[in-house]
Design goal:
This protein is of the alpha+beta class. It has 15 helices and 23 strands. The chain folds into two domains: about 230 residues, Glutamine Phosphoribosylpyrophosphate, subunit 1, domain 1 (4-Layer Sandwich); about 210 residues, Rossmann fold, CATH 3.40.50. α1 packs antiparallel against α2, α7 crosses α8 and α7 packs antiparallel against α14. It starts with a strand and ends with a helix. Bound molecules: iron/sulfur cluster. Iron/sulfur cluster binds next to α15.
Length: about 475
Amino acid sequence: MGGLFGVVSKNDCVTDVYFGTDYHSHLGTSRGGMVIWNGSSFNRSIHNIENTQFRAKFDAEIVNLKGDMGMGCISDTDPQPLTVRSHLGQYAITTVGRINNLDEIVAKEFSERKNIHFMETSKGAINPTEMVSVIIDHENSFPDGLLKAQELIQGSCSILLLTPQGIYASRDKLGRTPLVVGKKKDAYCVSSESCAFANLGYRFNYELGPGEIIFVTAEGVEKISPPGDKMQICAFLWVYYGYPSSTYEGVSVEAMRYRNGALLARNDNVEIDMVAGVPDSGVGHAIGYSNQSKVPYGRPFIKYTPTWSRSFMPQKQEIRNLVARMKLMPIPELVCGKSLLFCDDSIVRGTQMRETVDLLYKCNAREVHIRPACPPILFGCKYLNFTAARSAMELAARQAIIKLEGKEPASLDAYCNPATEQYNCMVDCISKRLNLTTLKYQNIHDMIKAIGVDKDKLCTYCWNGKEL
Ligand code: SF4
């Protein structure tokens, strides 16, 4: 994924850019970057945040920065923001998303233009943000360049482009990732996450529509290009990776999780002693479940947060698993002899879930029931790098299907439908592998109902393979 944050102010904005970007740390694990316009040039800095938090890396630098415009990013992939000088002038650019046809664009669009070079390569691969800047530079203005980029890119790409006059913000063509404008007395900000607003004094001002382009100055927001009529915002924002205090399309993440958990409980009839959430993103769903079922909410294990922050997410899966295991501490008195129901955001591979369940049984849990807050994930994300490190074959649901059928079936349609025998066999297979007492997934209709956005405007590809 990744997240963006930009500010245009009448006063110095370095602190806002620093904290506002930091509030996106849950969205990326690879690189953090900041760029500040000081009135005549850009000051830019990029750090590796794989093992250290964004704030710690930039802490010493911000005291030397001054400027009334700037932006930052948390990136899961390429180092950014990039600074550019072209026939359009000086600018800085940062992007979030996933460009699936990068090589095709380079081959097709740039083949007849001689002597093009890309400087920000990593292991020989072109930096996607630099490729976007090259597309923009081939047009006659920033708006034309941004429109051209959105027209060419397959996948998704939301863009902030900082010029000496203000910030262009361009939301990806189908609005898979959000972009929201905040306002305070002397400044405007543009942000992936609205949770960045409150503590910096901003209030919600405007949410960009799919493919929309705006230009933000300290005086206000100018609409440059209108939104498109098709939207596919990622439903997983609410279920898992959006921050609980954020709101997208007018729908609060935390409130959605309460509704979703309540709907899970309404369809359930299991006898349990306690409801719990797998921290962090399972907690909201579990509170909703507990409120609806009237079964008490508890914390049979606690996350050790003083040194393991949520944002610390190593790139290697084995180290992630180790970190996940080390973070969770059981409370034996709450587990021993108890029948426990856990809500989790989802089951991706199931590795961490298996370890968590083993830990509970070691503490003599009587029963462990799992209620994922979304349907089985059957397809890897093609749009946001969301499950990029995992091939679809690694998904717990796909592994179960291969075990049941001996090979990949020609169609997964039957496995997407909870009314089929195939679906039930798949869930049963996953449940046995994870050693669960019962496993019951949220169904797609209730998940969409809990979000409350028109189903045609939501991307649900992970669960049903459907795309526009
Ligand atoms: S495929 Fe899944 S993670 Fe990717 S945008 Fe769609 S709903 Fe979100």
